[in-house]
Design a protein that fits this description.
By secondary structure, the chain is an alpha/beta fold. It is 26% helix and 30% strand. Helix 3 packs parallel to helix 4 (74-87) and helix 5 packs across helix 7 (214-223).
Length: 280
């Protein structure tokens, strides 16, 4: 049974991604947003773009930030709403496409994590997303995002993954096209019919991620009026290595109280951050 992206998978996503240290993701992104440390967290509004099941958004809300979450999957947002209620925090959640979303309020910072931008499978779509990000950011605001590198998506294309949790299991096979640099991921999800049953129903989802080059990212961000002020290896303060699997970027909207070269510098991270891994 063929499903939309993050359809049936949404209900089992958190269990299958239980190894991900979202606290480390949130802390790493916040340090690079470099928000005014003298202002209370409650005075800042953050956008979690591609928020998924809300794991990072809930953590940010617990820290006192006003959090807006945008995602294309209604099923993932339903999980995020439930998690926010269980955590006793408020999230403003909206279903929108990353390339056309709009907000009624400007935000102090944007987080777009866990290779969300790789799901935009053309340079035009990437450019459109950056235009929307620039439109909602306050002057001087920053966007922290990460992408899977071409090397990582090529590796995924050559690998078969499998995992199981209490009531579900998946087999994940992929193909990487060298010309389009699109990795097509075929996920077969097996879900237990009911508690105590040995019967499983099979569902299929097809996901696609594109390996954007640094030049494409810089061009798209620049055309949107954003300035790239940081580029790092995964959960590092150092530039990405030649074989880096995940690359983090910081883009800034000019016009804040300080010029880019005078901005507050994010402090170095402590040990242990490198244990955080992405969802794929």
């Amino acid at each position: 049974m063929r499903e939309e992206q993050y359809g049936v998978l949404a209900a089992h996503y958190d269990a299958l991604m239980a190894h991900v240290d979202y606290e480390a993701w949130a802390e790493y992104a916040l340090e690079r947003l470099a928000l005014d440390s003298k202002a209370a967290a409650g005075t800042h509004t953050l956008l979690d773009l591609g928020c998924g099941t809300g794991s990072v958004a809930v953590l940010l809300a617990r820290k006192g930030y006003r959090v807006i979450g945008v995602d294309g999957s209604a099923a993932m947002l339903a999980v995020a709403r439930r998690k926010a209620e269980e955590a006793g925090v408020h999230l403003e959640l909206f279903q929108h496409d990353l390339t056309t979303f709009q907000l009624s309020v400007p935000v102090d910072g944007v987080l777009c994590l866990c290779d969300t931008l790789n799901y935009l499978t053309s340079p035009d779509a990437l450019a459109a997303a950056f235009r929307q990000i620039a439109a909602v950011l306050k002057p001087g605001g920053r966007c922290v995002f990460d992408v899977h590198s071409p090397e990582r998506l090529r590796e995924i294309g050559e690998t078969v993954f499998a995992d199981e949790v209490e009531d579900a299991a998946y087999i994940w096979q992929s193909d990487f096209d060298e010309v389009s640099r699109i990795c097509t991921m075929y996920i077969a999800l097996f879900v237990r019919e009911r508690a105590g049953s040995d019967l499983y129903r099979r569902y299929e989802e097809v996901h696609r991620e594109r390996a954007h080059t640094h030049e494409e990212i810089a061009r798209a961000a620049g055309q949107a009026g954003l300035v790239l002020v940081g580029r790092y290896g995964a959960f590092s303060d150092a530039p990405p290595g030649a074989d880096e699997e995940r690359i983090f970027y910081v883009a800034e909207k000019p016009g804040g109280p300080l010029a880019s070269g005078e901005r507050r510098r994010a402090p170095s991270l402590g040990k242990g951050t490198g244990k955080a891994t992405g969802g794929s």
